[in-house]
């Protein structure tokens, strides 16, 4: 048995322990964040078949609006077509494989390859291929961009590279009741970002599953109203969706929303395995998705949502909100990039989890184990 095989087997063996009724209160083995072999396994077993949060519907409001990114190295573009349907497509030209759209967002009436000017409609169908008529083996009618599964839920847009994947909506609906008062489907996006961090995707997701790090990384920004010493409540709904609540030091008031006492006194989380989720507090919802582009790089997609009445009330408030959010994101970036450098140390070892971070992180590890070890997802009828 090779050293490589032994290392991956050891990681998978450690993951299997998180499926026990009393899982170890330990972090993953350091190699889980650096192993090329595990990364390839994740690409095959997780990212080729999982729903990833990619955008908010406001970014795709009009025909021709598109958002482009990559999922574990696979380029993806999501676009609103003329009939207002969403399409998730491969933006790689079928001729000589040139990438037609760079990561980001924009608007277009067609996707045109700048190499030889092959043109595709917003539904992916080939519209034009200069001088290809004499090639009798080429059938333009059957040439189209590969399609992926796409689904919109309460304004959040999810993509799955597996075009035949089961819908994610039924899993998300399990958590919908906790967010009814936030009027998610009516909210508008007032800020968005797409930035790259130099960290493994699991480092970023661990951070999103615990509030303990607020003590250190966000002393001035989040600690005063969402203390890192609070006890985080976690309720798993299925291997793909869980609900969390983070106590607030000061109740979050929302004049335009009718929130109950739990919602006023907590940050309300919905986490979607493997990489996305959102948190609601007061009249604000922040969504984030940590989409891996390589073993040690993650594309951080996200945005801030508010009720329409709030978004139209004050431009100055919006600018302040954007500045604070950017500061918090940068605090996380600096911290997680330092973690990624640390996991490569020869002396790195598994760490003991604080009780404050155990509920969320152990839930994430359990979902990771389900995905990598091929366990069957929980039946939705018994998920709650």
From TrEMBL:
Keywords associated with the record: 2Fe-2S, Iron, Iron-sulfur, Metal-binding, Oxidoreductase
Named cofactor requirement(s): Fe cation
GO terms for MF: 2 iron, 2 sulfur cluster binding; iron ion binding; monooxygenase activity; oxidoreductase activity, acting on paired donors, with incorporation or reduction of molecular oxygen
Keyword Metal-binding listed: yes
Domain Rieske: 51-159
Source organism, top-level taxon: Bacteria
Record Pfam families: Rieske, Ring_hydroxyl_A
Entry keyword annotation includes Iron: yes
PROSITE patterns: RIESKE (PS51296)
InterPro entries: Rieske_2Fe-2S, Rieske_2Fe-2S_sf, Ring_hydroxy_dOase_asu_C_dom, Rng_hydr_dOase-A
Name the record gives this protein: Diguanylate cyclase
UniProt organism field: Nocardia wallacei
């Amino acid at each position: 048995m090779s050293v490589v095989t032994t290392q991956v087997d050891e990681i998978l063996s450690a993951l299997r322990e998180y499926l026990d009724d009393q899982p170890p209160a330990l972090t993953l083995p350091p190699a889980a964040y650096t192993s090329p072999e595990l990364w390839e396994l994740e690409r095959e077993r997780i990212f080729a078949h999982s729903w990833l949060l990619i955008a908010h519907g406001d970014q795709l409001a009009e025909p021709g609006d598109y958002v482009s990114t990559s999922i574990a190295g696979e380029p993806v573009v999501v676009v609103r077509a003329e009939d207002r349907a969403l399409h998730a497509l491969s933006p790689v030209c079928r001729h000589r494989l040139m990438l037609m759209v760079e990561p980001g967002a924009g608007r277009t009436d067609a996707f045109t390859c700048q190499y030889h000017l092959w043109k595709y409609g917003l539904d992916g169908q080939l519209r034009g291929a200069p001088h290809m008529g004499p090639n009798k083996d080429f059938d333009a009618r059957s040439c189209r961009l590969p399609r992926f599964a796409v689904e919109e839920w309460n304004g959040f847009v999810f993509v799955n590279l597996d075009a035949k994947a089961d819908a994610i909506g039924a899993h998300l609906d399990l958590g919908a009741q906790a967010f009814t008062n936030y009027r998610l489907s009516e909210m508008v996006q007032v800020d968005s970002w797409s930035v790259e961090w130099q960290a493994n995707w699991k480092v970023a997701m661990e951070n999103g599953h615990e509030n303990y790090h607020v003590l250190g990384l966000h002393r001035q920004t989040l600690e005063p109203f969402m203390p890192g010493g609070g006890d985080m409540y976690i309720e798993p709904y299925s291997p793909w969706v869980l609900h969390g609540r983070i106590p607030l030091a000061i109740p979050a008031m929302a004049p335009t929303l009718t929130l109950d006492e739990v919602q006023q006194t907590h940050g309300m989380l919905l986490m979607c395995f493997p990489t996305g989720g959102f948190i609601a507090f007061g009249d604000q919802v922040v969504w984030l998705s940590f989409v891996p582009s390589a073993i040690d790089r993650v594309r951080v997609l996200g945005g801030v949502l508010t009720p329409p009445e709030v978004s139209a009330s004050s431009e100055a408030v919006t600018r302040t909100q954007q500045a604070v959010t950017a500061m918090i994101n940068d605090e996380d970036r600096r911290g997680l990039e330092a973690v990624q450098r640390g996991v490569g140390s020869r002396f790195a070892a598994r760490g003991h989890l604080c009780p404050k971070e155990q509920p969320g992180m152990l839930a994430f590890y359990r979902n990771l184990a389900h995905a990598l070890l091929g366990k069957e997802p929980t039946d939705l009828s018994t998920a709650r």
